[in-house]
Amino acid sequence: MADKRKRRRSELNPEDEAQLPFKNKLKADSFILQILKELSDSSAVSSSSSSKTLDDLGLSSSCREVTDLSLSSVQATIESVILKIARSILSGNGFAFDVPSRSAANQLYVPELDRIVLKDKTALRPYANISTVRKSTITTRILQLVHQLCIKNIHVTKRDLFYTDVKLFQDQTQSDSVLDDVSCILGCTRSSLNVIAAEKGVVVGRLIFSDNGDMIDCTKMGMGGKAIPPNIDRVGDMQSDALFILLVEKDAAYIRLAEDRFYNRFPCIIVTAKGQPDVATRLFLRKMKMELKLPVLALVDSDPYGLKILSVYGCGSKNMSYDSANLTTPDIKWLGIRPSDLDKYKIPEQCRLPMTEQDIKTGKDLLEEDFVKKNPGWVEELTLMVKTKQKAEIQALSSFGFQYLSEVYLPLKLQQKDWL
């Protein structure tokens, strides 16, 4: 009985297969695999060519970027900052932090790098000012806590950090925000501070890597996959025979593809952050891209937020623009679900959702972003979305059958090289 419930793709009822729209357009898997092999080879060649940096563009003097620092370097830098403040107090100039501004006005999209970077503007955060006294106190407390982590050589979560002084922080968003400020002040990545987020992202498919010395085979992790380690510095020795990386926005689509073992039919690595991407997943995706030199294809909802999520992976988030060099994955291709797919694949009207006023505003705002304007295909798709005022989730494809995503939609997309 269990075997019947778990019928493989080849054992599907022929009548069920005949009812799947566009299935008759699919060619043999060997044809699609050849297309993927060409895509993989092309990606390997482009990845091998030297990538540009801020220094190459001559923008380094007007922009700020952080780097990975050792614990001893972070500790020494914190002590240097505090000594500087102590000298300022003793000389009668008061107590203030010079904090890099992370406001939208201090950010710059660099087309040559295809990512958002932070400019060099800073702002004083004085203790002797009623509007900044509390934030400067939080900044001092965070520096103290990070200094302790350096001495003890341990990792804690952002939640742990918040609970060390709940009355002062009041809300975790406040301690999280100052933690990013501290990274900017010290000039190091957030992972260098030994403060991590709780595990969120997962990976499954044709990937083997070491996690703190243990070898992990992601083809043997079940449909749940392997949780992406929150501290990427313990990940190494990546090996794969995959032809591409499939980045999936939502958990539901990820589970469908994992259970159908899509990665065995078309060798790939499937990754999801279950919505808004976290730092660990962004670091892990970049590490795979850089080390394995594989193309990355993205599967997101056909709405403005799906495209925003895609842009965070590709161009970086404005909130963490200071660390975009380490967090962004270049040349991610938008595979689906795209606004033009709704009519192309005859998605039923009952599966399309009307866009809210906020959705439409977000879509129009995205059309004004430089990273969208750079890609004519994105502009065309986003314009169509705003014009039709319709959106759809990946799960809309389930109206043709629960396995339509893995059986027809994705194979046909790959066959037609239908990505942007």
From TrEMBL:
Pfam family, one: TOP6A-Spo11_Toprim
Residues annotated as domain Spo11/DNA topoisomerase VI subunit A N-terminal: 134-195
Residue span(s) of domain Type II DNA topoisomerase VI subunit A all-beta: 199-235
Cofactor(s) the record lists: Mg(2+)
GO biological process terms, semicolon-separated: DNA topological change; meiotic DNA double-strand break formation; meiotic DNA double-strand break processing; reciprocal meiotic recombination
Xref: PROSITE patterns: TOPO_IIB (PS52041)
Catalytic center residues: 163 (nucleophile), 163 (o-(5'-phospho-dna)-tyrosine intermediate)
Class in the EC hierarchy, top level: isomerase
Keyword entries, A-Z: DNA-binding, Isomerase, Magnesium, Metal-binding, Nucleotide-binding, Nucleus, Topoisomerase
GO cellular component terms attached to this protein's record: DNA topoisomerase type II (double strand cut, ATP-hydrolyzing) complex; nuclear chromosome
MF (Gene Ontology): ATP binding; DNA binding; DNA topoisomerase type II (double strand cut, ATP-hydrolyzing) activity; magnesium ion binding
Main location: nucleus
Subcellular location(s) of the protein: Nucleus
Binding site for Mg(2+): 249, 301
Subunit field text: Homodimer. Heterotetramer of two TOP6A and two TOP6B subunits.
HAMAP family assigned: Top6A
Role this protein plays: Component of the DNA topoisomerase VI involved in chromatin organization and progression of endoreduplication cycles. Relaxes both positive and negative superturns and exhibits a strong decatenase activity.
Protein family membership: Belongs to the TOP6A family.
The protein, known as: DNA topoisomerase 6 subunit A
Native source species: Cucumis melo var. makuwa
